[in-house]
C-alpha cells in the first residue's frame, strides 16, 4: 500500500522529533510498510533517522525489522547519512548511539559506494581523523547533492511544534525500556507519563515566572498629597548591606559552578565521580532555572523539560553515561541522579 502525503508528513514529524513509540503506533495503526519511501529523495524511514540524528527512532526501527542495506535516490545507505550527520554534529554520544549502533548491522556494507563514489569506509576514515585531531575538518564529505528536503522538514518541526500533542513517548528497544514509558510507574510513584509531567512542570514554571515578573514590575499605587508629606517624614530605607551583596555574589557563583558542572557532565568524555553530579542541595526551581537558562520560547522550554526528564531518568542516565562512572562509585552517583529526577518531578506537585 502506498504511503499518502499526509502519512509521510506525520512519519517525518515523529522521526525529526525522535518519538519512537508514537512512530511505532502510527505505522502499526495505518499498516505502513517499514521500508516505504517517505521523502522526495527516495529516503526510507531509516535514512531519515540517520540524517536527522534520531537515535531512538533508528534503534526502534532496526529492532522492528527495517532493512539497513536499502539505498535512497542518491545511492546512500542509512550508514552514509549517519556518518555525515556525525561529521557535521560530532559528539561521542552521537558516534556511539548513531554510527556505532548502525555499523553493528551494516558492517558488510562499509565498502558500498553511493552514486558519487563515496563509501561508508571513506566517511569512517574521515571520522577517525576527526576524533584523533583537536579540530573539526574544514569541509566534511557530502554524500548528497541536495539537502533542501531535509532542511525543509527541519524548519517545519519548529513551525509546527504548537500543533503537536504533548505525548512524547520514551524508548522502544525490544521492550527493554517499556516499563519506563510511565516514569513514576517504574519508579514506584503516580501513574503519569513523561509528557504529562513535562506539561505540569512547564505550567508550574511559567506560573512561577509570571509571579516573579509581576512582583518585580507591578506599578506602585499613586499617593495623595498629604500621604506624600507623611512619607517624607519617614526615614530613608537602609541601603543594601555588604552581607546582602556577599549573599548575591555567592548565589551567582553557585549558579555558575552548577551550570559548568552540568555542561561538563553531558558534553565532555571525562570520568564521572560523585562530586561531578551538579545541583546538590538546590531547590527544584533553582535546578530548572539552570537547565532552562535564558530560554523564553514556550515550545523550546517544553521540549527542554521533556529532554531533561528523559536525560535524568536513572535507567536512561545509566545507559548513556554509566560507562564513564568511576569504578566503585556507580551506586552513589545513581543515588544523586535519582534525587535530581525526583526534584524535577516534584516541582509540579
Radius of gyration, whole Å: 25 Å
Low-confidence stretches: 134-140, 147-191
The portion of residues assigned to helices is: 55-70%
In the CATH hierarchy, the architecture of the largest domain is Alpha Horseshoe
Order of helices and strands: HHHHHHHHHHHHHHHH
Quote the beta fraction: under 5%
> What characterizes the major β-sheet?
none
Give the C-level CATH assignment of the largest domain.
Mainly Alpha
Q: What value does the average pLDDT take? A: 76
What is the CATH H-level superfamily of the largest domain? Answer: Ankyrin repeat-containing domain
Helical run tally: 16
CATH fold-level topology of the largest domain = Serine Threonine Protein Phosphatase 5, Tetratricopeptide repeat
Shape: globular
Structural class: mainly alpha
Q: First CA to last CA: what distance?
A: 47 Å
Count of domain modules: 2
Q: Tell me the total number of β-strands.
A: 0
